[in-house]
Amino acid sequence: MSQKLIDTITEMREEDVQGITNDLLEGGTTPLEILDACKQAMDIIGRRFETGESFIPELMLAGEMMTAVTEIIKPRMNGAEAEKKLGKVVFGTVEGDIHDIAKDIVVFMLDINGFEVTDLGVDVPAAKFVEAIKTTDAKIVGLSGFLTLAFDPMKNTIAAIKAAGFDDVKTMIGGGQIDEQVREYTAADAYGSNAMAAVALAKEWIGA
Questions:
Q1: What are 4-48's pLDDT values in tens digits?
Q2: Which is it for the CA torsion 176, 138, 133, 108, positive or negative?
Q3: 111 and 191 share one domain
Q4: Which of 68, 85, 127, 143 to pair with 108, CA 20 to 30 A apart?
Q5: Helices (DSSP H) in the chain: which residue ranges?
């Protein structure tokens, strides 16, 4: 069961993560189900961080475990990779937030589903998103944020994109604390509850 992986990550049992991931794959659990379990685990850790129950070292260790998991499942998903790039996407974690785990998962899923993704990294100011749109001519922008402090930078970034005249660019947001209310606050076009939701939105927007 994927719950075993969730528990392993939230209990910080780094030495068990790779073995459990391999056991799940051998038992028929799909890579997407494993990614979903990782997201659930990170949501739990994120809430603990917000309430002061977890700290930066736990977040960093959880990130290392997530990297280990994605390295294992990546070869299992390459068969889904599209030969032709569907469209261009600019993606990054907004200013003030240094978490790259959720971002990396979404970028990975967009890439293997045929999108050309420009990954700006973490702590990305609004101006850098605007500049990336100009240089890549991307029509989709993804803003990631793990904590509540990301809400205002998301709002400011989307406002900057509109102010720059990119009215035809679609924006999606996502991360541990994101919901429809936050989407309305930031004026994003949509929010994705997980990586596959982000892929579905991107495909819908380009008519794929």
A1: 999 999 999 999 999 999 999 999 999 888 988 887 887 788 788
A2: positive
A3: yes
A4: 127
A5: 2-10, 14-26, 31-50, 56-77, 101-112, 126-136, 151-163, 180-186, 195-206
- Which residues lie below 8 Å from residue 197, measured CB to CB, with a gap of 6+? 174
DSSP string across 110-134: HHHTT-EEEE--SSB-HHHHHHHHH
The mean pLDDT of the chain is 89
**Angstrom distance (rounded) from CA 171 to CA 142:** 6
Structure token pair of residue 25: 């794959």
The continuous run of DSSP H or E covering 140 comes out as strand 140-144
Residue 34 lies in domain: 2-80
User: Of 24, 49, 80, which residue constitutes the final position of a domain?
Assistant: 80
Closest CA to 110 of 127, 93, 90: 90
Give whole-number Cα distances, 138 to 44, 75, 135, 158, in Å: 33, 27, 8, 14
Task: Report the chain's terminal Cα–Cα distance, integer Å.
Answer: 33
Contact 40, 193 (CB under 8 A): no
**Reported pTM:** 0.72
Where a domain ends, among 45, 80, 115? 80
Hey, which of 74-83, 96-105, 162-171, 188-197 has the most confident mean pLDDT? 162-171
